[in-house]
Design goal:
By secondary structure, the chain is an all-alpha fold. The chain contains 16 helices and 2 strands. Strands 1-2 form a two-stranded antiparallel sheet. It comes from Pseudonocardia aurantiaca. Part of the binding-protein-dependent transport system for D-xylose. Probably responsible for the translocation of the substrate across the membrane. This is Xylose transport system permease protein XylH. It is a multi-pass membrane protein.
Length: 416
């Protein structure tokens, strides 16, 4: 009896220690899982908080169907620019010329369609061609001559703004034909009916939610296959349900306004296409490799010059797309079009999680960053906030986003 009791006590203590260690390990794993992508996950929380804040401050006006539609129409071209800008930033570069390229491509389209009387699609194709040429111009100087992108695109900002003034002869051109205006102001509605709402918009929203769920589930299975940590299944389901609820609410509001904006379809196609390019193609992986460690990328056989060249060609193409959307939205071309657009696109990329030093960032993150800027701008406009205060708030948010990136890097370095 006396010899058995101590043994039982020792076993009990060992079991308690084992359970405590397991609990500590489990807690550490959960903490690591929750903090591994703090910047990327935190941006979604911040977005929801900002939307809720302005909904409260504006008495719900910011979430009205008409206002949500206006946000999509007014900021779509900035989101298009943010897609290209985040790729440029991931590779460790910057592009200061996109606003001037937006103005130039819109001017080219206006001259051909309004002055020369060509079909609207001819003006759009010419604008895209000019955007590609501009991107190749930047890519040549950056990739093959070796001039830093900051200097090349700063020169491009001045050069293409001057060309815009020459093309337009310092005057504005308007209006575009109705077909051209449909690019940024058109809607798809009434295709499958609906009583007081557009059922087609709700169908597209449901398809988007289903696609998100399937993609997330496949990513989860892949992580499990490679023995990578994943969130618990109930947490995964909760995340998909939350995203689905937000998307369907957004679709419901659009369905009760004017239906599905054409420009939203264009933006969705671009987001999906570039999401695949950055995550699932050799080119995308090479972009991340160049931004993450240039020397290692070169030693691994990455054709750095070629990749950098096509990065800027792509940026020129997306700038032309944004130029077409902006000129369609404004129903004309102006010499001052696109002013400060580059700063909005850069801010969207950094707020969405891109790192200052390159190698980090996602297309979806840039979209969320752009939407944060859009919601803040729209909300402050609804509240009647002075333009100067709006600029102060935007600058402060951008500064906080970059400071948070630097803080995370220092903390990660200290942990090693």
């Amino acid at each position: 009896m006396t010899s058995t009791a101590p043994r039982q006590t020792e076993q009990t203590e060992e079991s308690t220690a084992t359970a405590s260690a397991a609990l500590h390990t489990g807690t550490s794993d959960i903490r690591a899982l929750l903090t591994r992508n703090l910047r990327q996950s935190g941006i979604y929380v911040a977005f929801v908080a900002i939307v809720a804040l302005f909904a409260l401050l504006t008495g719900g006006v910011s979430l009205s169907p008409v206002n949500i539609t206006n946000i999509v129409l007014q900021y779509s071209y900035i989101l298009v620019l943010a897609i290209g800008m985040v790729i440029v930033i991931i590779a460790g570069h910057i592009d200061l010329s996109v606003g001037s390229v937006v103005a130039l491509t819109g001017a080219i389209s206006a001259v051909l369609v309004i002055q020369q009387g060509l079909p609207w699609w001819a003006g759009a194709l010419a604008a895209l061609g000019v955007g590609l040429v501009v991107g190749a111009w930047h890519g040549f100087w950056v990739a093959y001559v070796g001039i830093p992108a900051f200097i090349v695109t700063l020169a491009g900002m001045l050069l293409f703004r001057g060309l815009t003034l020459r093309v337009l002869d310092n005057i504005s051109l308007s209006p575009f034909p109705a077909e051209y205006q449909q690019v940024a102001s058109g809607f798809l509605n009434g295709l499958i009916g609906g009583q007081g709402y557009d059922a087609f918009t709700l169908l597209i929203g449901a398809i988007a939610v289903a696609g998100y769920a399937v993609s997330g589930f496949r990513t989860r299975l892949a992580r499990i296959t490679y023995q990578q940590p994943v969130e618990s299944f109930p947490l995964f389901v909760a995340r998909v349900a939350l995203v689905g609820a937000v998307v369907m609410y957004f679709a419901w509001q659009l369905a009760h306004a004017r239906g599905l904006p054409v420009v939203l379809i264009i933006l969705a196609v671009l987001v999906m296409a570039y999401g695949v390019v950055t995550r699932r193609t050799v080119f995308g992986r090479q972009v991340y490799a160049i931004g993450g460690n240039l020397s290692a990328a070169m030693l691994s056989g990455v054709k750095v010059r070629s990749v950098n060249f096509w990065i800027f060609v792509n940026m020129g193409f997306l700038s032309a797309v944004a130029g077409i959307i902006y000129s369609s939205r404004s129903n004309g071309a102006q010499p001052a079009a696109g002013n400060m657009f580059e700063l909005d696109a850069i801010a969207a990329a950094f707020i969405g999680g891109a790192a200052v030093t390159g190698g980090v960032g996602t297309v979806v993150g840039a979209m969320v960053g752009g939407l944060i800027m859009a919601v803040m701008s729209n909300g402050m406009q609804l509240m009647g906030v002075d333009q100067s205060i709006q600029s102060v708030v935007k600058g402060f948010v951008l500064l906080l986003a970059v400071a948070f990136d630097i803080y995370n890097k220092r903390r990660a370095g200290a942990a090693r």
